[in-house]
Amino acid sequence: MAASVASIASFSGLFSIPALAEETKRKGKKCILLWLCGAPSQFETWDPKPGTPTGGPFGAIDTVLPGVKISQLMPQCAGILDKLAVIRSMKTEPSEHFQGIDVLTRGDKPRPPFTRPILGSVVAEQLGQLDSPVPQFVLLDPCPEGNEFKAFKAGNWAGWLGAEYGPVRAGGEYSIPDILKPETISEADHSDREALRSFLSRKYENDQRSQAASSYNAAFERVKGLMSCAPLFDLEKLPEDDRRRYGPGAFAQHALQARHLIENGSTFVMVANGMPWDNHVFQHEMHQMLVPELDNILFQLVTDLEDRGMLDDTLVIAMGEFGRTPWLNEARGRDHYPKAWSMAMAGGGIRGGVVHGATDELGVEVAEDHVDNHKLFATIYKTLGIDANESYDLPDLPTFYRVEGDVSPIHEVLI
User: Fold this and answer.
1) Do 40 and 320 touch, CB atoms closer than 8 A?
2) What are the residue boundaries of the structural domains of the chain, listed by start?
3) For residue 217, what are the CA distances in angstroms to 135, 162, 199, 201, 398?
4) Taking CA atoms, which of 212, 316, 332, 352 is between 20 and 30 Å from 76?
5) Nearest 5°: phi and psi at 32?
6) Residues 138, 266: contact at Cβ < 8 Å?
7) Would you say 333 and 283 are in contact if contact means Cβ atoms under 8 Å apart?
8) Beta bridge partners of 271
9) Which one, of 413, 124, 82, 77, lies nearest residue 262 by Cα?
10) At what angle do helices 211-229 and 187-208 cross, to 10 degrees?
11) DSSP string spanning 192-242?
């Protein structure tokens, strides 16, 4: 569809009304998930083992926390480790990508035929503003059509919560295509058509009690909102200096876009980066390129959020679906390893300067304070003010809880 000056102007007008702008951007807990798809190595990031048979060629450097070292590939994060909480004792079950992604983005393994909602859908449903023109759950992915593993192909993201809590997905050129009104249709005609469509669709939904029709109506309502806020997805409108600081890659630019969306009314933004971390071949060479980019992105994002007064209300999570093996395979790569791995969080109620848990000398086993997916999700929900032990209201379905089992959060990383 052709771009519409009127649509862009309507967005500018929307946010030029102070009361409406403040309502749309009102304070509340928010979350940015940097999803490191493919799974990074803990040895080359948060839990280095230099000088050991498993440690690899990279050294460890001092951080602002006395006695705590991280990989030499992360010098910028070393300088802000007092703002981060690092968990070195993750231990989960799935060792394959699909299953690992399910467990670490939904909080639990599948229970067919029921589909548990992804974390972003839960946060949008609990904390978001359904009537906001700004999408509450956004997925930014350089491969919006799905990468070669199809780990993020289109699917039932929101599960039993309903399509209205699914993500708006953007990627590629960073903007969302085909959401602007053609110039050949007047504003009046466009409004009349939408009013008629809405009336007939709602009537059908009510008469037939159709869940499918409800989902379609939710999608149409979302498109109406996107038409008004399309410029939010245009990175060309952001300062060139910001774009340069974050870096030229799609992952870096999407991280900047996530900050921009959170600042302007989104509640949850998930930034995926394809599958570059799945380094079964030439592990060290690949991580030597990937880790410095992550180091810079985390530094820029956490620093920006703090400078803008947003860090206290914005939880930042950086993780993949598992870790990498302590040993190298014949192709000099590290394979999948869920038994002992690391991840990091900052902001939004997380206590900075905490390193929780530990692995043994070679990084083969968790030695202290094992954390699984249930304990992690209980912690995430606690920081966001969401009751992890609450059950979903699902008439005629089995009882499901946000976090299954009697699980406590990681109190050491909470403020």
Assistant:
1) yes
2) 24-175+239-413, 178-233
3) 15, 11, 10, 7, 27
4) 332
5) -120, 120
6) yes
7) yes
8) 34, 140
9) 124
10) 160
11) HHHHHHHHHHHHHHHHHT-HHHHHHHHHHHHHHHHHHHGGGG-GGGS-HHH
Q: Is the pLDDT of residue 48 over 80?
A: yes
Coarse DSSP helix, strand, coil percentages of the chain, rounded to the nearest 5 percent: 40, 15, 45
- The single-letter code of the amino acid at 62 is D
Query: How confident is the model over 297-314, as pLDDT tens digits?
Result: 999 999 999 999 999 999
Q: Among residues 221, 305, 253, 224, which one has the least CA distance to residue 31?
A: 305
Superfamily of domain 24-175+239-413, CATH level 4: Alkaline Phosphatase, subunit A (3.40.720.10)
List Cβ neighbours of 294 (8 Å cut-off, separation of 6 or more).
34, 36, 40, 45, 74, 318
Rounded distance between C-alpha atoms, residue 281 and residue 392, angstroms:
43
DSSP reduced 3-state for 151: coil
d(CA 243, CA 229): 20
Residue type, 335: D
